[in-house]
Amino acid sequence: MTVATAESVLSIKDLNVEFSGFKALKGVNLEVYDGEIVTIIGPNGAGKSTLLDAIVSKSPVASGHVYYHGKDITNKLPYEIARMGIGRKFQNPNVYNELTVFDNILLALKGTHGIFSSIMAKLTKAKKGKIYDVLERTGLLDQAFDEVSSLSHGQKQWVEIAMVLAQDPSIVLLDEPTAGMTTEETHATGEIIKSIAKSHSIVVIEHDMEFVKQIAERIVVLHQGAVLAEGSVQEVQSNPKVIEVYLGRETINAAA
Amino acid sequence: MSNVVMGYKQSTFPKKLAIVSGIILLAFVILPFMVGSFQLSLMSKLLLFGALAVSLDLVWGFTGILSFAHGVFFTLGGYAVAYYLKLNLSAENNNYGGDIPDFMVWNGLEVLPWFIAPLKYFPVAFLAMIGVPALFAYITGSFIFRSKVSGVYITIITLALSSALTTFFISQQAYTGGTNGITDVSKLSVFGMVIPPVGLYFLILAYTAFVVALAWWLTQSNFGLILRSINENENRISFLGYDVAQYKIFVWTLSAALAGVAGGLFVPLNRFISPVYLAVAFGTQVVIWVAIGGRGTIVGPLAAAMILGQVQNSAERVTQDWNLIVGILLLVVVLFIPNGLMSLVPKKFSLSNLSKPKPMPETVVKPVAPSVSEPQPEPVQRGS
Ligand SMILES: Nc1ncnc2c1ncn2[C@@H]1O[C@H](COP(=O)(O)OP(=O)(O)O)[C@@H](O)[C@H]1O
Ligand SMILES: [Mg+2]
């Protein structure tokens, strides 16, 4: 077993993911250190979502390893990975539409998640406090008792983020958290993410270069299932390989 | 203050629900003194079908697992009690002297099989009535829900279980009584005294009330919220750290035990049990009760089982085409009222609503500081 660097929270080694012969990830390596924000960018179909899927065992890993705090978690069951402290927000809002916002957060709340405790559970002051705290941080207090189906797309994204926060994970994986949001909503989301970063490590997939500049510390560029470049916003934007991949693309040109 | 939150039990039993269920229960308590013995035994049977429907509602209505195997759990509990009652026939009622049931003798058995003999004792039979269906469910459930099988394939497995067990019970004639099943069993008695039909009725009423109360209590808790979430999107909840398979195995096993006891109580009433109740046709009937009553409503499946059972009983005397009528009714419900008859009842009267005090607006604590994401609202102009 490879021993990862001391303060490395997540360590991905030579990761390969295949979908019936199609290589979606080809030997990806990535380290995520304690308390940092790693932003993953790359064209559509580059394998960004697949990378997060492989970390939480949504997609099966063909070869390679995922280490979490030095422990091999490759292909463990999704619920085991979640219990270890890895929280995931999906690309498309993946929330419980028929339940209220409050109940969605309640479900996500960190706890034992055992059958007996779920039957006997009482809604304590402490739990309510935690839920309201998460709702306040994501600006959802006024919608607490609305059915999620009645919310806008942007608000549903926040419900997802709030669910991840309620899990109190040590690392947060966010897949396109600002998709479908207005400029103000996007900016507000950036501020939420920065506030999360004070106590969590974050991996975030993003398209919007304005947003990336707002939050980014370290950027990883994925292209055709492999890491193309890595570095600060400036380093990545001036990297000739990245320019070539993004040639003619509005987002990076506008941002550059 | 948290009363509007679905996922948690109320600290006190809701008053409105207590009144409504009290009135209904009272009607059932008075009933035996108003009807004849035939109607009383029919009511007893219908209550058991109601309990069976509620047990399936936990699995299908709340958790989303469509099962045609609930007749199997029912029947396994039934056979446990049938062996007990058969082995306790007094010597003069048994053609072969009371040691070995008649059907075993007819099929060439000379000694009582060792695995059936202990069922002569009440505690063993009682445990078997609950334990055999539960264990069977636990084993099949562990296999099904821990595997990669999902959705419609699970339903196909339940169909296969039902057919396989029917065939097995019919083929093992010496041990099971074959197609006829176990007939001419003794009456149920305690301390040498036979329980009269009214007594049996109250026993069954108490059990059905228990099943309804248990189902309500479980589904009002955080556990119920988790079952609903599994139903809506079981993938998502596993990424929140829930072991979905564990929850499914639990509710599947619990439901089987509840169905098994209903089957166990059915035998002293019916005085026989046979593979008819193992077969897919009976399992389908249970599914139809739940579908017509309304999935995930507890009261709907209970009422549908009892009403359809009553109608079936009356219709069978007039026409042989009862199944055709049910088929048409099911078609109408599925096409026009996909959420079942309970969805026609105003929300106001639904079980979950009766148990819930009016939402209190002050439940939402206003943020002390404006949240990052929302602009300060303009002060509201108050018109007078
Ligand atoms: N479950 C799947 N089955 C088959 N192919 C998939 C699956 N998930 C992703 N892919 C393929 O893998 C590639 C990478 O997809 P994805 O990771 O979603 O890209 P993106 O970088 O846009 O998030 C795409 O070509 C996509 O079609
Ligand atoms: Mg993607």
UniProtKB/TrEMBL annotation, chain A:
Looking up CDD domains in the UniProt record yields: ABC_Mj1267_LivG_branched
Q: What is the protein's name according to its record?
A: ABC-type high affinity urea uptake system ATPase component UrtD
Pinpoint the ABC transporter domain residues: 10-249
Gene Ontology CC: one annotated term: plasma membrane
UniProt cross-references to SMART domains, sorted A to Z = AAA
Quote the PROSITE patterns the UniProt record gives: ABC_TRANSPORTER_2 (PS50893)
What the entry lists under SUPFAM superfamilies is as follows: P-loop containing nucleoside triphosphate hydrolases
Domain of life (superkingdom)? Bacteria
Instruction: Supply the NCBIfam families for this chain.
Output: urea_trans_UrtD
Against InterPro entries, the record matches this protein to: AAA+_ATPase, ABC_AA/LPS_Transport, ABC_transporter-like_ATP-bd, ABC_transptr_urea_ATP-bd_UrtD, BCA_ABC_TP_C, P-loop_NTPase
- GO terms for molecular function, please? ATP binding; ATP hydrolysis activity
* Pfam families named in the record: ABC_tran, BCA_ABC_TP_C
What keywords appear on the UniProt entry?
ATP-binding, Nucleotide-binding, Transport
Gene name, per UniProt, is: urtD
Q: Which organism is it from?
A: Phormidesmis priestleyi Ana
UniProtKB/TrEMBL annotation, chain B:
Whether Ribonucleoprotein counts among this entry's keywords is: no
Subcellular location, principal:
membrane
TM region positions: 17-38, 58-85, 124-145, 151-170, 190-218, 249-269, 276-304, 324-345
State the annotated membrane topology for this chain.
Multi-pass membrane protein
From the Swiss-Prot or TrEMBL record, state where the protein is found: Cell membrane
Q: Which Pfam families match?
A: BPD_transp_2
Q: What domain of life does the UniProt record list for this protein's source?
A: Bacteria
Q: Specify where the region named Disordered lies, as residue ranges.
A: 355-384
The answer on whether this UniProt entry bears the keyword DNA damage reads no
Q: Name one GO molecular function term.
A: branched-chain amino acid transmembrane transporter activity
For this UniProt record, the keywords arranged alphabetically read as follows: Cell membrane, Membrane, Transmembrane, Transmembrane helix
Provide GO CC annotations from the record: plasma membrane
From the Swiss-Prot or TrEMBL record, give the protein name.
ABC-type high affinity urea uptake system permease component UrtC
- The gene from which this protein is expressed is urtC
